[in-house]
Write a structure and sequence with these properties.
The chain has 778 residues and is mainly β. The chain is built from five helices and 55 strands.
């Protein structure tokens, strides 16, 4: 074996092999998804011996060029006095080094937006590039599964993030010789069979486990549940209205706030495509001067995708036009950047010496037209209100569903309301600063894409300056009001300093600010999602039946609270339980195998954590596949290059690879519907997300469910959110077989809860309720 250390003194690597303390063989410890560690002791045997310094690079490898370890000293060696020699005092120097990623761990991750809808490998490559551009070879990083969202927290190190991403994708990472390797677990598989002539039976220790679970309850996060619509009426004085449920909502979060203070633009936020050199930053503004007269060629594009879920507020900037312009500002695109793929944006076209501004929706201009005025500047805003908070499910893995074959992760279809508005500010008229914006478009769009590209500027020929661009994850509630005889308009929810008109309080109140108090008889509609804990209980009936013995009914239960991956919804909890059950109903095994490097399983040259071992040991009734979790290498024969490998392994039944669990804050669990593993994904109908009350009188409520009932099914209405099913009439208002129906109104404040059902036996119902709440004077 050859030990080389580069003290980074300009002299290059030095060979320290002869100084290795033979009484303390070098040890390499490799643990899955953690930095590898080298421990080696040196004894000075030469007057010219140079003590390795902290930060020195160390490589240990065979003479054929195969590296066993490459990394860096993170601290100075520990000195141990051994006595007096011919050349003076003799010391042993104990060195501890960590693999190459320690360089990345020493750097602080930049503040950046979460990765959205990126592959696991792409996220890892990006973090590596952000920290040390061009230093590490990432060609061996596989893409694997897409992550709905992943936040690269600067408080964590690169290796911590790499380990988390590997867990999410059921993958393994390692670094060696300046390369980052990221691959699915089991990419390399080796046979360990007792029929192999090189098999060492004394080196194998096996431990069967009793971890069988066939009844899993999964606890997830607080999730959005009921689709709630509250209806109020203003009296000209009241500013607070009490909501019927506690809303599921995230705090107002600024994803990014770009003030254009640096040139060039921050590459962790913006991707600039500018073949005609039309884009620059000057005087604290983004300057656009020209273009290529072609749609989709000159772009200032946000580097991450935008998830069109919940509520979004995108402020595209305070824009000053210096000449007639053509292009799209603030475009949200589904697919390649082109007007035909623009889900929402502002189209700018020349109009003599000025420009026209129009809403662009689904590739077509729509709504009112606004013509610019010389010297004015314009603030563009887009607001999204999606029916669903999350636009894709979380994916989960097991040994039967490895990387790129996850359970779950399906898109979540949704409709959304889109509001496009422009505020025209005249610098000579201070009142225009607080004047209401002009709404160019306010409409409901069916089937909006889940993820889109945000392009601040798509310049065919733009002549303008942009002062800021801001993306805000707004409060997940939609407030609309209508004066008597007029159409509903959307009101901005959020802090007053962001120009909002109302806000939701922690006590489940809707509070209007003083300048926006609803007028007498002004109708108020509030749409939001109720909240509750995501839960699921899934069983494996086949395993339960097989385990029934004597007084044992066969149920072997477990309650798990997920830490990673997050189970954000009950559907996620169901899919997580499926993945857990796939492994927990199989026999659990863990073990350790020790052998010389010459006789590694399957004639392997080397073995790393994350590799698979196919064990075939009939004499011990052990035939299973396991994953290597740790490899300890002791270099006992340096001259002959023979090492002793200790390989620790287990299967997912003994130690799940793709989950991290934590203790739940819940002290007790509510009643949870018990589903068999064969029922998941087929037991629930779609919720009535578009249902609404269309008319309120003193005696009746007119309801439109927004969808026609299924053949043989209907719409079930109840006075409380309980008792769903054909056998319970305690709180039943009625079962209706038409899309529109009327229910009696019995009080000033009244609730009506809806779910649809079908004709199966027993009937299937919606997973989530639609709650309609009316608070109107009689």
């Amino acid at each position: 074996m050859k030990l080389q250390i580069d003290n980074l003194d300009g002299q290059g690597p030095r060979d320290y092999s002869a100084a290795i303390d033979a009484a303390n063989p070098p040890q390499v410890v490799r643990i899955r998804n953690k930095p590898a560690e080298l421990r080696v002791s040196l004894v000075a045997n030469d007057p010219g011996f140079i003590v390795p310094a902290s930060g020195s690079r160390i490589t240990v490898g065979r003479t054929n060029g195969q590296d066993v370890f490459t990394g860096y000293l993170t601290q100075a060696p520990v000195f141990e006095y051994l006595g007096w020699g011919a050349n003076g005092p003799v010391y042993r120097y104990d060195l501890v080094a960590y693999s190459d990623e320690v360089l990345l761990d020493q750097k602080r991750l930049p503040d950046r937006s979460p990765f959205v809808d990126r592959s696991a490998g792409d996220a890892l490559r990006q973090m590596t590039q952000d920290l040390l551009p061009g230093i590490f070879d990432t060609s061996a990083v596989q893409d694997l599964d897409f992550l709905p969202s992943y936040y690269p927290d600067p408080q964590k190190t690169w290796s911590q993030h790499a380990g988390e991403i590997a867990t999410l994708a059921r993958a393994s990472y390692r670094t060696l010789n300046g390369s980052v390797i990221f691959e699915r677990v089991g990419s390399n598989s080796y046979a360990l069979s007792e029929s192999d002539p090189n098999f060492n039976p004394g080196g194998l220790a096996l431990q069967p486990g009793n971890a069988l679970v066939n009844d899993v309850t999964v606890i997830g996060e607080v999730e959005p549940q009921a689709y709630v619509k509250d209806y109020f009426i203003g009296d000209g004085l009241t500013s607070r209205f009490y909501l019927s449920q506690t809303p599921f909502t995230k705090s107002n979060t600024i994803v990014f706030d770009e003030e254009y203070s640096m040139s060039p633009l921050d590459p962790t936020r913006w991707n600039v495509i500018d073949p005609g050199s039309a884009v620059s930053v000057a005087n604290g503004k983004l300057q656009i001067a020209g273009g290529t007269d072609v749609d989709g060629v000159t772009l200032v594009e946000y580097v991450e995708q935008v998830e069109l879920g919940g509520a979004l507020l995108i402020q595209h900037g305070d824009v000053t036009f210096s000449a007639p312009s053509r292009g799209v500002l603030g475009g949200i695109y589904s697919g390649p950047v082109a007007i035909v793929n623009c889900t929402a944006g502002f189209q700018i076209t020349p109009n003599g010496p000025q420009s026209n501004i129009q809403a662009l929706v689904n590739g077509e201009v729509s709504g009112a037209l606004l013509t610019t005025n010389a010297g004015h500047h314009y603030v563009f805003s887009t607001r999204f209100y999606s029916d669903d908070i999350y636009r894709t499910g979380q994916g989960f893995h097991s040994s039967l569903h490895p990387a790129e074959n996850e359970i779950g992760g399906s898109p979540v279809p949704a409709n959304a309301r889109i509001v496009l508005e422009v505020q025209d500010i005249d610098p000579s008229n201070p009142a225009s600063e607080v004047a209401p914006a002009t709404v160019l478009y306010d409409g409901q769009i069916a089937g909006v894409p889940g993820f889109c590209n945000y392009v601040s500027v798509n310049a065919a020929n733009m002549q303008c300056a942009i002062a800021f661009t801001r993306l805000i994850r707004a409060i997940d509630a939609q407030v609309r009001t209508a004066l008597e005889g007029q159409s509903y308009v959307t009101r901005l929810v959020g802090p007053l300093d962001q120009g909002s008109e109302c806000n939701l309080t922690s006590t489940a109140e809707l509070k209007f600010y003083s300048a926006s108090i609803p007028a007498a008889n002004q109708a108020i509609s509030v749409h939001y999602r109720g909240s509750g804990r995501a839960l699921a209980r899934i069983t494996n009936p086949a395993s339960i039946a097989a385990q029934q013995r004597g007084v044992d009914n066969g149920l072997h239960g477990s309650v798990r609270h997920l830490k990673l991956p997050l189970a954000r919804t009950s559907s996620d909890c169901e899919n997580a339980a499926l993945a857990i059950l796939e492994d927990s109903t199989a026999p659990a095994w863990k073990g350790c195998y020790q052998t010389w490097s010459d006789f590694l399983p399957g004639n392997a040259i080397d073995i790393f954590p994350g590799d698979a071992l196919a064990l075939n040991i009939p004499s011990r009734s052990a035939c299973f596949q396991a994953i290597v979790r740790e490899v300890d290498i002791s270099m006992r024969d340096l001259q002959g290059e023979h090492c002793v490998y200790q390989i620790k392994f287990s299967n997912d039944a003994a130690e799940p690879l793709a989950f991290d669990f934590q203790t739940s804050p819940l002290k007790s669990l509510p009643d949870i519907p018990e589903l068999a593993n064969t029922q998941v994904g087929s037991i629930y109908l779609d919720a009535l997300t578009g249902a609404e009350i269309t008319l309120v009188s003193s005696t009746t409520l007119n309801v439109d469910a927004a969808v026609a009932p299924l053949p043989g099914g209907g719409i079930e209405a109840r006075s409380s959110d309980a008792g769903w099913g054909p056998d319970n009439d305690r709180n039943l208002i009625g079962r209706f077989t038409s899309q529109t129906f009327t229910v009696p109104r019995l009080a000033q404040i009244q609730d009506c809860y809806l779910r649809q059902y079908d004709s199966s036996s027993p009937p299937k119902y919606s997973r989530y309720t639609t709650a309609l709440h009316v608070d109107y004077p009689l």
